[in-house]
Specification:
Helices cover about 40% and strands about 15% of the residues. It is built from 17 helices and 17 strands.
Length: about 575
Amino acid sequence: MSATVLAARDLSGCEHRLALDHGVAPGQSGPPAPVPDPPSVRRRKEAAAMHRARVRETLRATFEPAGWATIADGPAADAAKETMAAIESGTAWIWNAVLPNDAGGGRSGRSELLMASGSGYLPIIVVNHRISTPRGPVVDPAQQAVDEQLPVTSPIDAWAPALDPTRKLRNSRRDQLRLAHLTRMLQDLGVAAVDRDAEADEPVLGAVIGLDADCMVVIDLSAPGRAQPDSPSVLADYDERFARAQQVAAGAALTTPSRVSECRSCRWWELCGPELEARHDVSVVVSGDRAEALRGIGIGTIDDLAAYGGPPPERWPTRGGQGPQADLDDTVIMARAWLAKVPLVRRVRTVSIPRADIEIDVDMESFGEDGAYLWGTLRTDTTAGSAADGYRPFVTWDPLPTDDEARSFAEFWGWLMTERQLAAESGKTFAAYCYSQQAENRWLLGSAKRFVGRPGIPPLAEVERFIASDQWVDVFEYVGLSFICPHGKGLKRIAPAAGFAWRDDEAGGEASMDWYQLAVGMADDAGIAAEPDLAQRTRLLEYNEDDVQATKVLREWMDSAAVQQIPYFEDL
């Protein structure tokens, strides 16, 4: 009897999505109407395709003399035949490999690269996220090898796996499971570097090339996962997950919806979301592992959570640095607020946030990993009233990445530090504000590092001193200290409580990525650039201006009597 054919992605994430995809979920009446990918998903796919293309050209230039084949895009059956022909001819490196669907084993899969090793092949996958980061200087590598499991890496231009004390790994079980999936397919085809009978005695290797493409991280799939050294091997974990996924896809294991992170872009959310809200499922308020922890102590609904007065579950996953009990108390208040249809709850009697004579609101816009193209500012002299001087942007419209980013950043930094100095010289206090400094700090520090030595670029130490000072205020942090937010703490969730509304109904970080591509006439995959859309530039500037205005309105509201209209948590 043929098994249900599964891809590697079916082995992680939401089991209910897997059941829905295979038409075996209880009460399912059919698939939703086809819809285009959301902008965020489309951009991730585009970025991943461009990344793979860059890596392909780098590897081909290096390994083509040893024997290289690129499998043409097209119908999967044709690509699989071409892949098997390349394997049978002993081609050393096979790019865009598609393995034949295995109806008996229940697997389908493709690998960005197959590498000949011994009498068979091992998989190398290319992913569009970071899989390792540089490590600081190691004082005693020998002692480090005793204290922790060193990663194994190989140079990008040669297969030479070795322990690497210069890097730290970012554990990704999804990548490991994909390598295991491909390895099982190669073994079932009889073309794996290590067959099943030998895997107890030989390391079963696969490799991952990440976003930086500066090395290959080599994974021993016959060893335990790095996150839990005492756990079963990656292959053993894969086999268990694969068997479970087969049961789910066949309808032999029943599933129910629960809100998790992937729901944001899932095509089934229009079906699951209303169902979860209708039954007051606890995952509507606290998702993922926190919802599972609550279910483990018998709390399955928002009503159960709102009435709970006991201790937190064992190993309760906390958020924001709070202790388990304080964090659980917040979730109970969020449940009560959800039932009362209250969008915001005060956690303190008196809300406060630092104020100054000269206040500057800052908002940055970036494009993926390529850089920050816009620093928007709004200056207010509170000694002369609350009216701002006017929005001032520092921007480059050269498509990122570009050296002109150094110029726009230097102009922004120079202006900000001049305003700071003028305030000090006139005896006035000074503060600059942003909403969630993690993003701004990343590009403040990153710009100082990348453009060191360019005109107007500050020393890294100067930037570090500023962002560590009391003059750099994160409004997001004070929102978290002041409020419990049942629907999230994003600026667009919170600022409406202060009476602010964006001019553009589509305004948001995800949409701005699409606007930016049009605004700069970004080249397509073939390298052909379009004519820049000036209307989209105006749209981006207005969106950024609204963000700094929203930050100003929100923090001034927090410092006003009007904030007392928000219910205090004890009143719930």
